[in-house]
Design a protein that fits this description.
- The chain has 459 residues and is α+β, with helices and mostly antiparallel strands.
- It has 17 helices and 16 strands.
- It has an eight-stranded mixed β-sheet with strand order 1-5-6-11-10-9-7-8, with helices on both faces. Strands 13-12-14-15-16 form a five-stranded mixed β-sheet, with helices on both faces.
- The chain is elongated and about 90 Å long.
- The structure holds histidyl-adenosine monophosphate (HAM).
- The site of histidyl-adenosine monophosphate has 26 residues, from β6, β10, β11 and α12.
Length: 459
């Protein structure tokens, strides 16, 4: 058997890996702006955690979970999503009793679903999401949508399409399901085998069927708005009014039911067009849920949250030219000229790293021409050439890779020399950072390397 990545999984390297890091950083920074704290829950949960919360009628739970018996004969599942595990954790740790409400947590990491791999759909993928648990308010629902859009805005997305719907409260849903069951029962003979199951398990799932003939039948189905309680209707429009005031454009999609069973009241998804015309599906999905903590033995608190599909976001960023130009990966390429200076050059390289510079040093040595080629490929800003003669004289050669200027610098003042090479004094004040400095070595002029040296020496 060839050694290849497992079907539906992939290696993420280079520019793509940089993009994952960028999304992670932006997501975490924005989540913190909204007062969210990071939670890291295990990849493995007891299977019941998902069975009980995410639902009997959800394809994710019924067909797509990586579930197996562990060596202790316990059924465990690799998380297909984070919400259930977060709720389990909040209840297990009794955070609802010790933390201020709402509990606001964010997460980032891999999730696993045994799906048919296709564009934007993997068996291992990365989700970044939030949960806000313990206060039932349309304002928190709205804040969640605003936060998701905030993250996408910082990443540079424009022209996003936000779809919203309401699944109402439990009573509204029960009445609506009854009406749907009556309607679809009359058409079920012409519908796909999956819809036969959906009719029994949860007729609302039929609204989401992708088979074109079934979609025609769905067009004539009863609408949720006719079964919505006054309270759910009011709540939905309150949320919409808040996001509208925040400048978020949305459309109501009455067939948006979402793929997990725990939702009630508002649900939403965000889609974006790819410049290549590719359709990756929803970039983010989320909504309000009731009763999840209660399922795990906690109080009857509601929550709201969303999860980004980071793989899809990265694909779209690539297609739409939104990948940030990552800062050069190498500030200084240290070049030891010969075996005898490698240890000293390594010590110099380490000092520079401790000062915060990105430093590369080839331990294999080699010819200087080859090292310059590598320094160019790494995008190094400076080359620091260290030869035996130079070391004996307490100097090294510093070459600006862009201007090709090269000069000897004192190893004793290495950090100051490097600092002034990276931050040259503004033109015009005469500070050159070298022997012929404006201050004649006396210091005293702002930004002058000599003043910095004096400061360091405590003069
Ligand atoms: P979800 O819609 O199942 O919701 O997943 C959220 C996002 O994860 C999707 O919009 C999509 O971008 C991404 N995603 C899902 N499956 C795949 C896949 N096979 N390959 C690549 N990306 C995928 C949830 O998971 C809910 N837990 C969200 C939530 C949080 N609701 C409330 N709180």
């Amino acid at each position: 058997m060839p050694y290849i990545a497992v079907k539906g999984t992939r290696d993420i390297i280079g520019e793509e890996a940089d993009a994952f890091s960028e999304v992670e950083q932006v997501f975490k920074a924005v989540a913190e702006l909204y007062g969210y704290k990071e939670f890291r829950t295990p990849v493995l949960e007891y299977t019941e955690v998902f069975d009980r919360s995410a639902g009997d009628s959800s394809d994710v739970v019924r067909k797509e979970m990586y579930t197996f018996m562990d060596k202790g004969n316990r059924s465990v599942t690799m998380r297909p999503e984070f919400t259930a595990g977060m709720a389990r954790s909040i209840v297990e740790k009794k955070l609802y009793a010790t933390e201020d409400l709402p509990i606001k947590c964010f997460y980032y990491g891999p999730a696993f679903r045994y799906e048919r791999p296709q564009l934007g759909r993997y068996r291992q993928f990365v989700q970044a999401g939030v949960e806000c648990v313990g206060v039932d308010s349309a304002r928190y629902d709205a804040e969640c949508i605003v936060m998701a859009m905030h993250v996408l805005g910082v990443l540079g997305f424009e022209n996003l399409s936000v779809k919203v719907n309401t699944l109402g409260d439990a009573e509204s849903r029960a009445k609506y399901k009854e009406a749907l069951k009556a309607y679809f029962s009359e058409h079920i003979d012409k519908m796909c085998p999956d819809c036969h199951d959906r009719l029994e398990l949860n007729p609302m799932r039929i609204l989401d069927c992708k088979v074109p003939e079934d979609q025609e039948i769905v067009k004539g189905a009863p609408k949720m708005k006719d079964y919505l309680s006054e309270a759910s209707d009011k709540r939905f429009y309150q949320t919409l009014s808040i996001i509208n005031d925040m400048g978020i454009k949305f459309e109501i999609d009455e067939n948006l039911v979402r793929g997990l069973d725990y939702y009630g009241e508002i649900v939403f998804e965000v889609h974006a067009k790819s410049a290549t015309g590719a359709d990756y599906g929803a970039l983010v999905g989320g909504g309000h849920y009731d009763g999840m903590l209660k399922t795990f033995g906690g109080p009857d608190y509601s929550g709201v949250g969303f999860a980004f599909g980071v793989d899809r976001i990265v694909s779209l960023m690539k297609d739409n030219g939104l990948l940030g130009k990552k800062e050069g990966k190498c500030d200084i390429y240290v070049m030891p000229l010969g075996e005898e200076v490698i240890d000293e050059a390594f010590a110099i390289a380490m000092n520079l790293r401790y000062e915060g510079y990105k430093v590369e040093i080839p331990f294999t040595g080699g010819k200087i021409g080859g090292m310059f080629k590598k320094a160019t490929r790494k995008g190094a800003k400076f080359a620091l050439i260290i030869g035996e003669d130079e070391l004996n004289n307490g100097v090294a050669q510093l070459k600006n890779m862009e201007t090709q200027e090269q000069r000897a610098i004192s190893l004793e003042d290495l950090d100051l020399e490097i600092e002034s090479a990276f931050n040259p004094a503004p033109e015009g004040n005469g500070c050159c950072g070298g022997e012929s400095c404006c201050c004649g070595g006396e210091g005293g002029q702002e930004g002058c390397c000599c003043s910095q040296k004096e400061e360091k020496e405590g003069k």
